[in-house]
Design a protein that fits this description.
This protein is of the alpha/beta class. It has helices spanning 16-35, 49-66, 80-90, 109-115, 138-148, 219-234, 236-255, 283-292, 312-316, 321-325, 338-357, and strands spanning 43-46, 71-75, 95-99, 120-124, 151-155, 174-178, 189-193, 260-263, 273-278, 327-331. The strands form 2 sheets. The chain has a 7-stranded mixed β-sheet with strand order 1-7-6-5-4-2-3, sandwiched between helices. A 3-stranded antiparallel β-sheet has the order 8-9-10. Strand 2, helix 3 (80-90) and strand 3 form a beta-alpha-beta unit. Helix 1 packs parallel to helix 6 (219-234), helix 2 (49-66) runs parallel beside helix 3 and helix 8 (283-292) packs across helix 11. The radius of gyration is 21 Å and the shape is globular. The mean pLDDT is 95.
Length: 362
């Protein structure tokens, strides 16, 4: 509120109000950098994780193209911000290898080792999956890339605030985060790019963000992101213990429903995401019935829920289209309570039973 009222100056201005806004901007940059193990000059503010993912891929594509490297390695269940950008890069002569993630949703380091080629410009693998919550062995994957001289980017949108991130210790070259995932404002994110990488400008114009992303910075949202990430990191252990207990309570109860399955690795997962498949139902119908009961769930991540077709994440795990169609995703936060989990546990079984009695649309 202070940024929206008392300090509503343009941080590029040299007058008093501008200097006050600039101080907040750079203090926020310094704070976020410290929380992820980076230097302030390595952090650029963006509109969110999607923009940061686009920037990482397009920038390294440009860098690689100058050196005759037109190959990118990723996975088959990345966020659409990565997969759609890779498709676009394909129209510019780049080739993408998408690694298999197996039925548990985990990348095997040996598969990455085999996929890297002499002309590989970038490896981009998400830190934690947005639909099923599985957490990848990021440090091992990034270290492998560092040893092969290949840039490594991770979409850490789901992980920031829930998993300890240290870009220096983990050998991460580029990283994307988005504030709303750790209870900050929507529409603001950050892109980390290791010092020494010749990062091309993403938006042309003024000299904001070290001349790499033109446009007046959204200081109120940036200040909110900084405060939210600081709070999330400070309370990470306490929050994760609470979330894990509620998540496991949900998993245990839902797994008792006949012909149900938990998607993703049982242990190597974020504390607040659980995705289930139920044979013989339509997931969207289940979500609507849960909504009538006052329960917010989804069939996929919010970024993909408006798209037609099956979840590409669940298909990447090897699920049949029929099984993937009958999936529901629950996302928990520190604001949830055990009583709310109990309400889900009580409401879900009769909903599944009722849907199984109804004819499914073809």
């Amino acid at each position: 509120m202070e940024c929206l009222t008392a300090r509503y100056g343009n941080p590029s201005s040299i007058h008093g109000m501008g200097r006050a806004a600039k101080t907040i901007l750079e203090n926020s940059r310094r704070n976020i950098a410290q929380l992820i193990g980076a230097r302030p000059e390595e952090v650029y503010f963006t509109s969110g994780g999607t923009e940061a993912d686009n920037w990482a891929i397009r920038a390294t594509g440009e860098i690689g193209g100058r050196n005759g490297k037109f190959h990118i390695v990723s996975t088959s269940f990345e966020h659409p911000a990565v997969l759609r950008t890779l498709e676009n890069m394909g129209q510019k002569g780049f080739e993408a290898t998408l690694l298999d993630v197996g039925h548990e949703g985990l990348v095997r380091p040996e598969d990455l080792r085999d996929a890297i080629r002499a002309d590989t410009a970038l490896v981009t693998i998400m830190y934690a999956n947005n639909e099923i919550g599985t957490v990848q062995p990021i440090q091992e994957l990034a270290s492998l890339c560092r040893s092969r001289g290949v840039l490594f980017h991770t979409d850490a949108v789901q992980a920031a605030g829930y998993a300890g991130i240290d870009v220096e210790a983990q050998n991460i070259d580029m990283l994307s985060i988005s504030a709303h995932k750790f209870h900050g404002p929507k529409g603001i994110g950050a892109f980390y790019c290791r010092r020494g990488i010749p990062l091309p400008a993403f938006i042309q114009g003024g000299g904001q963000e070290y001349g790499k992303r033109a446009g007046t910075e959204n200081v109120p949202a940036i200040a909110g992101m900084s405060a939210a990430l600081e709070e999330a990191c400070a309370n990470m252990r306490e929050n994760n213990i609470k979330l894990t207990a509620m998540r496991d309570m949900l998993i245990e109860a839902v797994s008792a429903i006949p012909q149900s399955r938990l998607n993703g690795h049982r242990v190597k997962r974020l504390p607040g995401i659980a995705n289930f498949s139920f044979e013989g139902i339509d997931g969207e119908a289940a979500v609507l019935m849960l909504d009538l009961a006052g329960i917010c769930a989804s069939t996929a991540s919010a970024c993909a829920s408006g798209a037609l077709g099956m979840s590409h994440v669940l298909l990447a795990l090897g699920l049949s289209r029929e099984t993937a169609r009958g999936s529901v995703r629950f996302s928990l936060s520190k604001y949830n309570t055990p009583d709310e989990i109990a309400a889900v546990v009580n409401a879900l079984p009769p909903i599944i039973a009722r849907l199984r009695e109804m004819p499914r649309p073809r």
